[in-house]
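QUALITY CONTROL LOG
STEP: pairwise intake check
CHECKER ROLE: data steward
CRITERIA: each record must contain a sequence immediately followed by its structure tokens, with no blank fields

ENTRY 1 OF 2
RESULT FIELD BELOW
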Amino acid sequence: MSYSLRNSLILGGLLILVIIGFIIGNSSSVKKLNAIQSSYENNQKLLNELKAAHPDIKDQDLFLQSLKELEDQVQKESKIITRENDPTLTYKYLLDICDNFCPEVKFDFRFNLTGRVETTSYNTYTLNGNASIQALYTFLYQIESQFLLYIIDSIKLLEETEGGVSTGKINFTIVLNAYYEEDAPEFKDIPFRKLKYRNVAYNPFYSRIHAPTPDEEEQGFIDTYSVVMIGLTPDKIFLRDAVARIHVLSPGDKVAYGYLESINWDEQYAVFKLNEIGIIKEKIIYLYNKE
């Protein structure tokens, strides 16, 4: 047998082996593909049957999302009961609230007693002090809204006066319960919640409609009754006061008992909102040569 013929036979044999291997491998892949396709169709059929038997299953993702949102809300709004409580911990906690949110609040602190409700214990404390109504409101708001379970049991308020004249402060007595459980989960560092700013709308110790009352702080601002407008632009006005000083104001800037609300460039006047007697009123000042 010649050399070339022998090589041809060898190559031919190898080619046949490759073809056979390809056919066998392809057949195996086809079988696997058919098995996968069959499994997919069976699973799809089972899923369709489940959806038909339970029409609300299609809302599962929505339910899970709603559940997650509720869990997050509970986490944000829930209260924490600590394993222990004592006068030192409570006093420090209340001082931290004052330092962070209402430093004006000053109080004396006294431990009263220890009580128990089923498996939950509590210590009762009394706070006596004074503050402005706005600072006191912030203090109470933080106690009620922060993580730790402190409950205000009672509160007494009395307007502070000197010689029959109000000082603008409130004397308060607060009875506070601090709850704890020995079997409660252990929390190491409990941060303060980031709460939205809130404040009391008005002082309940004063009539909401009253005669004009001199206010030293307000009198430090521009008196709109003794100024003349000498110029304006679409976003600024120029006022001259009684001693010939020039003041430049933009909408939102403070004046005595109010603020500059807007500028009417076309009609050449400015609109102020003032509250001197408990009722907000509007005052208009025209450019001096328009009056």
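ENTRY 2 OF 2
RESULT FIELD BELOW
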Amino acid sequence: MRKSIRILFQITCLFVLMFIAMGCPVGIEYPLGTPGKEKIESKLIGTWVAQSSDAEIKKVKVSKKDDSTYSIEVLERGEMYALETDKLEAWVTKFNGATFLFAKPDDPNDPKYYHYNYRFDGKKLVLSDMSLLEGGMDAVTSQEALQKEVMASMKKPEFLSAPVEFIKE
């Protein structure tokens, strides 16, 4: 019994350290933008392969669902992939001069949104996690509160973390 508890504790500590080091996104109950409000960016459509072996998502297919929604299918998971599903719906939004992709798993047990800053560097797609650095997750009680938190956090150099470059297959 003691050995099981010790092993569970060690595994828990390892996961906590890995999440801190990798900057994995945290699900948020509210989206940064309004799903369906902005048109998709066709440049995102395709199959993308991560250039880092440590990536949470190693290979992903982004398809057009409709004029404002993407269908996302994770084709190859990294070791740190934490969702129960490989299928998500996603949207883009422009906010305070930056572009963000926010996705919602098709898992009814996970009604949260996962946010990434994205940009293109030549033919590469660069996804970065965003950090909430003012009030943190506790400050996010609505979409408006999330936007306020992101706006304040964007002023800090550590707002974006763990950038992962993807190349279109």
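INTAKE CHECK: passed for both entries
DESCRIPTIVE NOTE, ENTRY 2: The first strand starts at residue 46 and ends at 50.
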